[in-house]
Design goal:
Layout: E1 4-7, E2 10-13, H1 24-28, E3 31-39, E4 42-44, H2 46-59, H3 68-81, E5 87-94, E6 112-119, H4 122-131, E7 133-139, H5 154-165, E8 170-174, E9 180-183, E10 187-191, E11 197-199, H6 210-221, E12 226-228, H7 233-237, E13 241-246, E14 250-257, E15 260-261, H8 269-281, E16 284-285
Parallel strand pairs: 7-8, 7-14, 11-12
Antiparallel strand pairs: 1-2, 1-6, 3-4, 3-5, 4-16, 5-6, 8-9, 10-11, 10-13, 13-14, 14-15
The protein binds pyridoxal-5'-phosphate (PLP).
Pyridoxal-5'-phosphate binds near residues 35, 211 and 247.
């Protein structure tokens, strides 16, 4: 079966899908994106992902390419045409095509919209979760507005590459005070020595992960203690357990940071438990 992508109003073969060389996404990384999980044919936390897309667009003064209802139709059409049961939907919006100039186009141009889908085997992620992943720490070199889900991902790309070259799946980014901000493509969590679940507070220094938001609701429903605050790498080394969250990884246990075993060195009970119930709690829409 051929993969199909949506590009600016047309459904095209993925291998033929193209954007203009003067698209500002290509020229300046002047755009934003969203990745939403598809699980058993349903979109997970769709509303929150599209609310965050609207936030990212508004922060960069990019017009919405379609109204919310129309975008939801396109997303479903891409899912259907690619027969996605389990996988991801990727939505990217850029400011559009205009002669290269750092300043926004004088005459408003139509934002570019691309929607693609990818099938994945959910068992593969389960195998990683049973083993737990390795993380490596690296300085956070990103700009000061990473709460916007921008397509400018070069520091994240370099961090993930560094992780890969050092036998780790994810990189944890460390700010100038030695505190963990988040992962290169995930939010970072620990269960402290005292047993509190800790993740960094929301501000401009991290992305407000949708998986993070949903997990916070689950933690509250279970009456467990959550601390939204900064934590250092040293605190993480001494933690009972550590994990990451993201639409592509869900809740993924971390068993090693910079080569040091965390807790017992096996996936911790908090991450394992919440991973198991995550899809039953998150909002599903089909
Ligand atoms: N932080 C960063 C930098 C990310 O790129 C992502 C996901 O791509 C996340 C956090 C997790 O966000 P979400 O749970 O919405 O996937």
């Amino acid at each position: 079966m051929s993969r199909i992508a949506y590009v600016n109003g047309s459904y095209v073969l993925h291998r033929d899908a193209m954007v203009h060389i003067e698209d500002r996404g290509y020229q300046f990384a002047d755009g934003v994106y969203e990745v939403c999980e598809v699980f058993r044919g349903a979109l997970i936390d769709e509303k929150r992902h599209f609310e965050r897309l609207a936030f990212s667009l508004a922060e960069l003064q990019i017009a919405a390419p379609l109204r919310a209802g129309a975008l939801a139709v396109v997303v479903r059409e891409v899912m259907a045409r690619n027969r996605i049961k389990n996988g991801f939907i990727y939505v990217q919006v850029t400011r559009g095509v205009a002669p290269r100039d750092h300043v926004f186009p004088q005459k408003p141009v139509r934002p570019s919209l691309v929607v693609t889908a990818r099938q994945v085997d959910p068992d593969k992620s389960e195998i990683s979760a049973r083993m737990g992943i390795n993380v490596i720490a690296i300085p956070d070199l990103r700009w000061k507005r990473v709460d916007i889900k921008s397509i400018a991902l070069l520091p994240n790309v370099l961090a993930r590459q560094h992780a890969r070259e050092h036998g780790a799946y994810e990189a944890w980014l460390i700010d100038s005070e030695g505190m963990v901000t988040e992962g290169a493509a995930s939010n970072a969590w620990i269960v402290s020595e005292a047993g509190s679940i800790v993740t960094r507070q929301i501000d401009h220094s991290i992305l407000r992960g949708i998986t993070r938001t949903t997990l916070i609701e689950i933690i509250a429903a279970y009456g467990l203690k959550l601390e939204e605050r900064k934590f250092s790498l040293e605190e993480a080394f001494a933690a009972r357990e550590a994990f990451i969250t993201g639409a592509t990884t869900l809740i993924m246990p971390v068993v090693r940071i910079d080569g040091q075993l965390i807790g017992t060195g096996a996936p911790g009970p908090v991450a394992t438990k919440f991973r198991a119930i995550f899809h039953d709690t998150a909002a599903r829409s089909s």
